[in-house]
Amino acid sequence: MATQNPIVNTLTNYVEQNSDELLVASVLGARSAQMFDLMTGLKGKAKLNYMETNPVLQNASDCGWSESGSTTFTQREIDPKYLKINMAFCDKKLLPTVHQHAVKVAAGIKTLPFEEEWTKSIADKVAAAIEHLIYFGNGQNDNEFDGLVTILEAASAVTTNVSAVSGTSAYAFLKDVAKAIPAQVKNPVILVSTSLYREYMQDLVSANLYHFDPADGGDGYMLPGTNIKVLGVEGLIPGATDENDYAIAGAIENFVYGVDLEGDSDTFDIWYSKDNKEFRLDCEFIAGTQVKFPAEVTVGKRARA
């Protein structure tokens, strides 16, 4: 029997003792958040300043000074959003269900027998939502920050684009993306959805180009004949209305994920509200993304059928 508030638990010490770990699991649990260049202490909009140098070798057989070379400073702005999860649940909703045994009141103290499982599930779901926003978030919505696709499509610097028609094999598509990566990009990777990654792996099997090495792991594999690793991420899985499969290529350190995690703006808390006769969960945090050098990113789009 379904309930409006399916899991309502006893208030134990679990969240109090593990609130920091649950917060970190929520905010940094996404795979992409763990891979990208992490910026902490973020309170709001912030300027990101990066330096590029271009020294020029010269003939030094003669005396004198001949200045050559350049130093360029690039400024990008990260615009994070202050996000939250507020949930309320009433343990009495469990009384007519098979979970009624979990509802206990001892000496007037409410208890939550499923608290650990429930809060871990919340942290996992928040991390999954963040993983999606990292790529497809649209800052025009007040509950989203701009993701990489939004940022790169709006970048003033020219980003290399690769287009493929529907029906193009994943392997052929990714080879074209790899060819378009600027030569100056060091140690590039290609980020794709896990569904496109699985298709790519099947293409390699069919072409007899797949020789599994357990050290490569299950979600990353080198593009044959290159030093470029293809990485499958959940965040790039397209929605039902999305027209393209995306491949984002560049140096992994070129992508920034910003959070606070240093102040009191981030919380993960659960309590019993005597006034409302219900348990309440509050998770609040700051998060955002940015690209340091958009011109060094290649965006591939393959039309979906």
Task: Walk me through what this model shows.
It is a single chain. It is built from six helices and 15 strands. By secondary structure, the chain is an alpha+beta fold. The strands form four sheets. A six-stranded mixed beta sheet has the order 7-15-11-8-10-9.
Name the overall outline: globular
SS field, number of helical segments: 6
What is the topology, as strand order, of the major beta sheet? 7-15-11-8-10-9
Which percent range fits the helix content? 10-25%
Note the run of SSEs as H and E.
HHEEEEEEHHEHEHEEEEEEE
Distance between the termini: 39 Å
Short structural description:
The protein has 305 residues and is α+β, with helices and mostly antiparallel strands. The chain is 24% helix and 31% strand.
Characteristic key phrases:
6 helices, six-stranded mixed sheet, 305 residues, 24% helix, alpha+beta, five-stranded mixed sheet
What topology emerges from the helices and strands here?
Blueprint: H1 14-28, H2 31-35, E1 37-39, E2 46-55, E3 69-78, E4 81-89, E5 105-106, E6 109-110, H3 115-136, H4 148-154, E7 160-164, H5 170-180, E8 188-193, H6 194-206, E9 220-222, E10 229-233, E11 244-251, E12 255-259, E13 267-273, E14 278-291, E15 298-303
Parallel strand pairs: 1-12, 7-15, 8-10
Antiparallel strand pairs: 2-3, 4-14, 5-6, 8-11, 9-10, 11-15, 12-14, 13-14
Helix pairs in contact: 1-3
